[in-house]
Write a structure and sequence with these properties.
- The chain is built from 14 helices and 17 strands.
- The protein is α/β, with parallel strands linked by helices.
- Strand 11 and strand 12 form a beta hairpin.
- It starts with a helix and ends in a 24-residue tail after the last helix.
């Protein structure tokens, strides 16, 4: 009915207005560039392609094939890999494809525990479990927010897993992959890196270079530190043609059919822009994250890993048990137009996911909007006012809106400075 359509349009309009006046700090989000956004509304949205370029199960893919081939080449160039599959429609789907190709009920896998920061897809109740696998978790150093090297070496030698998976959702520091290379080679396991959160940092030459540190396959989502559409990617230097073929078929027909052609085209624009702007962007993301960690630490927040500079990525983690816990904190922040998420910390039980100790913050979208280190002091002040000082959120909200008004445009892209969230007038 017409009134329902108007209602839906109105809610989207409100959402745009809200986010254009907010400070977005969810570590798993970003905003795409104006050029990429244009392609989201193209006729590619309405079409279907199964299989590979030149070998489709549908007609009408002449130009789709050309785009997909170019996007593949851009991905291989950006990440300096031999093989890139740009068909996965999310990071978790990319993970499922790897599990379809390399995993199974008769295979073993090691990974970081969810409470220590891993993504749910690596858990027994996620994609790993769906393949009938029971992960063994690496020994984890809570103070360092990283795996314990010596104990992990011993564990890998004892377990001899078929797959050694590394990657986290609270991803503060690079895991010691180089130091584990000898173990990987001795075991002969597949080494898989879930780089969803740090993909843009890796592509920008920051954080670490997994594919040169013993990793065979890297997956990720393309909308976090890589500021593209909500989508996934699979990158690899397969050890042989058999593995390459298994990875290919793990994607299709393994875990998807059509692969959302409009977002694939938008991903191509993102990759091209990141080749040109990614290094500057990645460096500023990390500078801002460190600055935000320091600013919050100086305002009496218990920011994890202060002795290590808080982070080497876009993410910082804060223990807010003293102030009511993560859920209370992010709800107060949201009322003040600061968008973040509650998060498990290593001492939390997985069952407490809805009421965890922590708040996770990401600097990548604030950076995309043009903010620098000096602006992180003001952001930290806003957070302190609602979380520690318990100030009325509506009052802080007005100050946040005024502060955000200086940051309307998107940076590190070709049409730099264009608004991130246009004031859409759907209803006339």
């Amino acid at each position: 009915m017409k009134k329902d359509v108007k209602y839906i349009y109105k809610q989207v309009e409100k959402h745009h207005e809200w986010f254009s006046n907010s400070l977005p700090m969810i570590a798993s989000e970003n905003v795409i560039s104006p050029l990429a956004r244009d392609l989201m509304l193209s006729d590619f949205q309405d079409r279907y392609a199964e299989g590979a370029p030149g070998d489709r199960y549908y007609q009408g893919n002449i130009y789709v094939d050309e785009v997909e081939i170019r996007v593949q080449e851009l991905a291989k160039e950006l990440f300096d890999v031999k093989y890139a599959d740009v068909r996965p429609i999310s990071g978790t789907v990319a993970n499922m494809a790897v599990l379809m190709a390399l995993g199974g009920p008769d295979k073993s896998i090691t990974s970081v525990d969810v409470s220590d920061g891993a993504h749910i897809s690596s858990a027994v109740f996620g994609a790993v479990g769906m393949r009938g696998m029971k992960p063994k978790n690496y020994p984890f150093d809570v103070d360092e927010m990283n795996i314990k090297l010596d104990e992990t070496k011993e564990m890998l030698m004892e377990e001899k897993p078929d797959i050694a998976l590394f990657g986290q959702s609270v991803f503060l520091f690079p895991p010691p992959l180089e130091e584990l290379q000898d173990i990987f080679q001795e075991i002969g396991c597949h080494v898989w890196y879930d780089g969803a959160h740090v993909l843009g940092l890796i592509a920008g030459g920051e954080f670490q270079d997994p594919m040169r540190e013993g990793v065979e396959v890297m997956t990720g989502s393309t909308h976090k530190t890589l500021p593209g559409p909500q989508r996934g990617i699979l990158l690899a230097d397969p050890r042989n043609e058999e593995i390459k073929e298994r990875l290919f078929y793990g994607v299709f027909p393994g875990v998807l059919s059509n692969h959302h052609l409009h977002t694939m085209a938008a991903l191509g624009v993102t990759l091209a822009e990141h080749i040109e702007f990614g290094q500057r962007y990645a460096r500023q993301i990390i500078k801002n994250a460190k600055a935000l960690g320091q600013a919050l630490y100086e305002r009496d927040f218990d920011v994890l890993c202060a002795h290590k500079g808080f982070t080497e990525s876009h993410t910082i983690a804060i223990d807010v048990r003293e102030y009511g816990g993560g859920e209370t904190g992010v709800e107060a922040m949201e009322e003040a137009n600061m968008i973040a998420n509650k998060n498990l910390l290593p001492w939390d039980d997985v069952d407490s996911a809805l009421e965890p100790s922590g708040i996770r913050l990401g600097s990548q979208e604030l950076t995309r909007l043009g903010m620098k280190e000096s602006h992180m002091d003001e952001v930290a002040d806003f957070i302190k006012r609602v979380v520690i000082e318990d100030e009325e959120p509506q009052k802080v909200k007005e100050d946040v809106k005024e502060f955000r008004s200086d940051f309307e445009g998107i940076h590190y892209c070709y049409k730099e400075g264009m608004p991130a969230h246009k004031r859409f007038s759907f209803l006339r």
